[in-house]
Design brief:
Strand order of the largest sheet: 4-5-8-9-10-11-12-15
Mean pLDDT: 91
Largest sheet: 8 strands, mixed
Strand content: 15-25%
Order of helices and strands: HEHEHEEEEHEHEHHEEHHEHEHEEHE
Number of strands: 15
Distance between the termini: 41 Å
Number of helices: 12
Length: about 350
Amino acid sequence: MSTALLDRVKIDRTTLSFVPELVYFEPSSLDYPKGQRIFEWVKKEGIPYRMTTSHNRITNLPGDSELEKYKIAKRTLVVGIRKTLKFDTSKPSAEYAIPIATGCMAHCHYCYLQTTLGAKPYIRVYVNIDDILDAAQGYIDERQPEITRFEAACTSDPVGLEPISGSLRELIEFFGKQEHGRLRFVTKFHHVDSFLDAQHNGHTRIRFSVNDKYVIKHFEPATSKFEQRIEAASKAARAGYPIGFIIAPIIWHEGWENGYEELISSLAEALPHDVTKDLTFELIQHRFTKTAKAVIEKRYPRTKLEMDIEKRKYKWGRWGQGKYVYPDEQANALRMFISERIFEHFPEAKIEYFT
């Protein structure tokens, strides 16, 4: 990493939505400039830190109860290297997931990471970005002349970590130079300023995960506010990035029609008109598994999230496992209402799917 880039990504505490309370460093992470930069910042800020040979050996997180340990883990950062450079597939969003971080500082009650990260909900950032980009180049070269898409937000929200890691900007500028490679990621955070001037060349699509105010207030603690996300989307659009929105999870609640009408109209007011021709929407209704229901109720015992199996329809998945979704009548009402509002305000937009 060049000195100029290191200077540009100095960590500014005033820009952070996430300040870890405890940081673990894998010793090998300090062999990389990014790891050294984070290490120096942690020492300067007086944040407690420890060394660990591997994140898998972190078993002694503070806390007297499982719930307390979970909350502390969500404020814990692990700085390490990505050893596995075989990328997972990421259909339908992209051909591959590109791993730059794992875990998220947000406390979204419904999040699938509740179960996929299991007992290790701490946040990990990987500092060997050059190795990760070299692996991505290999995947791109294999599929030429086809375009290969990479999703950077399968196991984390990298925008929330960007003020610390600076990794997204590096990815964006790498893909900006790729004829056959494209990057995409989704976020609930508004920290886009540090990469608005990146040389993206239209090769990175930023999708903002948005919802109505009721859902954000009750089910998405520690994320950016409704207005902040919309403002960030406007900034990114004006910086020339292809833009998309994921409305997820769409939740049936009292007043949902007004809430989603306000959401779509607010987007229409904020976005410059010239970006709407290439605007995408992904619509995902709320769903849960029995396993997720048990974990959520344990971690957020006072949640207002409706997970009554008797009120839901069981939908089989492709791997023989199913999830509970809304009955057809409710699902169709949600899909039709939101789709109509989208095309009313964005007649040239594309709704990629409703699921």
